[in-house]
Amino acid sequence: MQQQAAQFHWKRKLTQAFTLAIIILVPASGIFRVDLATASFVVFGQPVGWSNYFLMFGLSLMLATAPIITYMTIGTVWCGWACPQNMLAEWANKLTFRFLGKRASVDIDQNLKIASDKNKPLNWLILAVAFLLASMVLAVVPFFLFFSPAEVWGMITFDSSSQLAVFMHRLYYFAVFLLFLNIAVIRHFFCDYICVYRIGQRIFKTQDALHIEYDASRSADCAKCNYCKASCITGIDPTNSGKYDSCINCGECIDACNRLHAKSGTSGLLNFSIGEKKGRTTFGEKMREVVARFNWLVGALFFVGLLLFAWGSYTQIRAQQAQQQQQLEQQKILQLTAACKGSCSDQHAACKSGNLAACYRAAACQCQCLLQTDPANPSSGQWRQCVQQNNAKAEVEAGQRLPLTDKPAATPVPAR
């Protein structure tokens, strides 16, 4: 029972840490980043312009349908298990309660009450420094989504004095200010009144989506200790939750109730539930309920959006790679041409004197040099034709320029 008593807390913490790592690593590694300077996305290190219809339409479909799918199936799991804003607000609340007392809540519907034995300048200073340091570190994270790692590193180390670096520093200071304000004052207020994702939940969420369920049939076993309410991150009563409450499905109340009842060898009265089936269910049964709650029309639109996004990215990346390869080949040919020009200097000198045959030989010589230097080049066939044709023209021109004494005598025409 002790293992079951804390089955969600550390799993949720690991999920939050993993989500934050993904948010940083995906743009930093070049898998996906927004490049405002060129009005494009960077997909696997390649720029994909916003003018790409398939990519933009597909991305719009995914952004519109993905939240609806989660609203109707797993409810508010994103908020409780992955959202960086909730993670930050939860951390700030715990730190505030530790240094200012358990009633020092900054929520709009509660009064901020500082414990008299903790209302000391040192506690306020430690709290402010901790919030400031967290703001300075986290303010760097959004930059990875819009700037390359080299540019972000240059901003951190003050390694550049360019106009972009100056702009990034000013933007960074503003981000630190907003984050400090968010950590110190806003916290869960953002989730309840500002977050667009949360507003969408109030439109599409249903009671049958994943939610915390109180086993009312065992109400006699409830100790009325309010332990679950005290453990709730958002401060609601899990035994009397509603469809549009601020529950974020974190599972902390379930762990709290399980810990309390584990002492007497019984299970808690709270559990995750989905669909119409009541009571405790296995993980497999919950997954089947998730599939049953899945809206296949919305899912099909999301899948279409994913395919369009992938196709738009693939076609543009392939086109850009082909263009880059062509430019590299042209640059290579120019370098080879410049190198081979010196090996045919005698023919070029004769050409400049007005000898047309020498000009043809100079062209053939240069093509022969290119062919010998890079025989595997895709243009080797054209170079081979160049050698043959120019040598043939040179021979014809040389024959036409023979002296009159060397030309055969004309056959006399007999008189009639």
Describe what you observe in this structure:
This protein has 416 residues and is mainly alpha-helical. It has two domains: 2-30 and 74-293, no CATH class; 328-398. Helix content is 62%, strand content 5%. It contains 18 helices and five strands. It has helices at 2-5, 9-28, 53-72, 77-81, 84-100, 121-138, 143-146, 149-157, 163-186, 188-193, 196-204, 227-231, 252-262, 283-293, 296-343, 345-352, 356-373, 380-400; strands spanning 32-35, 40-43, 46-49, 211-214, 270-273. The strands form two sheets. It has a three-stranded antiparallel sheet. A two-stranded antiparallel sheet has the order 4-5. Strand 1 and strand 2 (40-43) form a beta hairpin. Helix 3 (53-72) packs across helix 11, helix 15 (296-343) packs across helix 17 (356-373) and helix 17 packs antiparallel against helix 18. The chain is elongated, with a radius of gyration of 37 Å. The N and C termini lie far apart (133 Å).
